[in-house]
């Protein structure tokens, strides 16, 4: 039975890597996939992972019709056994409905990958619709970690190194390296809920620990690697 599966997680938890692995394993067995993405950091029409792998993809931009695209492909003699849709949080809800039609009407498996919530902890419209329609929602096995060592469940945005909670929902960007997002104004960092609520990024925690003026809220906010 074909399925619509939503692989959901925070930024940097391995979604694109898994998408590329699914593509690799299926194509190695002679299956033919159609790969879609939207607003990948590597540029238009590309699906990229931080492990360095990248593949070509169809850019599913504003107004793109997945169902019509697949029907055109199949009726012109093409073959598609499965569909991969990365950065699915950016899809319009109607496009997610089209993906469900691809599963139900065309009998094709659809694997969608995306972050559920934005930097304000609000659901992206595409992810909301996927949660409403998916046959299965899967969390990734490799969990991203907050600076405190707890599982990261939320995405924070930083502007000039400071965490913000206002701004446009969509700003393409990357998570900071260990030294911070050098030279990049907008960056992202994954945090546990506790530290997202307190707006305590790794840099803010470091600064707080160094400042003699700041008393710790409680011991759990010390920047050591433990489950807090
Ligand atoms: N240098 C590295 N060595 C090993 N694993 C890495 C390295 N850099 C990134 N990763 C892995 O890649 C993951 C990010 O993969 P990616 O597919 O780009 O994530 P997502 O699509 O969820 O944002 C990280 O969680 C980490 O496990
Ligand atoms: C939290 C959040 C993220 N984004 C952007 C930043 C990246 O370009 C993608 C997520 O990519 P990843 O492969 O999952 O790391 O989404 C955004 O536009 N708005 C946000 O609130």
Class of secondary structure makeup: alpha/beta
Major sheet summary line: 6 strands, parallel
Residue-averaged pLDDT: 91
- The share of residues in helices is 25-40%
Number of domains: 2
Return the string of H and E elements: EHEEEEHEHEHEEEEHH
If classified by CATH, what would the architecture of the largest domain be?
A: 3-Layer(aba) Sandwich
Strand adjacency order, main sheet? 5-2-6-7-1-8
Describe this entry's structure for a reader:
α2 (66-75) packs parallel to α3 and α3 (93-106) packs parallel to α4 (125-133). The model is unreliable at 222-228 (pLDDT under 50). A hairpin with a 2-residue loop joins β9 and β10. The chain has helices at 15-28, 66-75, 93-106, 125-133, 193-197, 202-210, and strands at 4-9, 33-37, 46-48, 54-56, 58-59, 82-85, 109-115, 136-139, 154-159, 162-164, 186-191. Helix content is 27%, strand content 21%. It has 2 domains: 4-139, P-loop containing nucleotide triphosphate hydrolases (Rossmann fold, 3-Layer(aba) Sandwich), CATH 3.40.50; 154-221, no CATH class. With 228 residues, it is of the alpha/beta class. It is built from 6 helices and 11 strands. The strands form 3 sheets. It has a 6-stranded parallel beta sheet with strand order 5-2-6-7-1-8, with helices on both faces. A 3-stranded antiparallel beta sheet has the order 10-9-11. The ligand Cc1cn([C@H]2C[C@H](O)[C@@H](COP(=O)(O)O)O2)c(=O)[nH]c1=O binds at residues 11-12, 15-16, 41, 115, 118-119, 155, 157, 169-173, 188.
């Amino acid at each position: 039975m074909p399925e619509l599966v939503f692989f959901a997680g925070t930024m940097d938890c391995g979604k694109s890597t898994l998408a590329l692995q699914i593509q690799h394993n299926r194509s190695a067995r002679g299956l033919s996939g159609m790969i879609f993405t939207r607003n990948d950091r590597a540029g238009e029409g590309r699906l990229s992972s931080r492990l360095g792998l990248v593949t070509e993809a169809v850019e599913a931009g504003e107004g793109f019709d997945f169902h019509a695209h697949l029907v055109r492909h199949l009726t012109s003699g093409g073959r598609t056994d499965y569909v991969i849709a990365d950065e699915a949080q950016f899809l319009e809800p109607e496009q997610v409905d089209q993906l469900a039609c691809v599963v139900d009407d065309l009998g094709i498996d659809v694997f969608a990958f995306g972050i559920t919530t934005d930097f304000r902890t609000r659901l992206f419209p595409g992810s909301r619709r996927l949660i409403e329609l998916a046959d299965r929602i899967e969390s990734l096995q490799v969990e991203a970690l907050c600076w405190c060592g707890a599982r990261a469940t939320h995405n924070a945005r930083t502007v000039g190194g400071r965490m913000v909670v206002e701004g446009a929902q969509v700003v393409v960007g990357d998570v900071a390296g260990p030294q911070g997002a050098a030279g990049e104004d907008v960056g992202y960092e994954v945090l546990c809920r506790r530290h997202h609520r307190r707006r305590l990024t790794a840099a803010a925690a470091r600064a707080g620990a160094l400042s003699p003026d700041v008393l710790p809220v409680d011991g759990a906010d010390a920047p050591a690697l433990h489950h807090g």
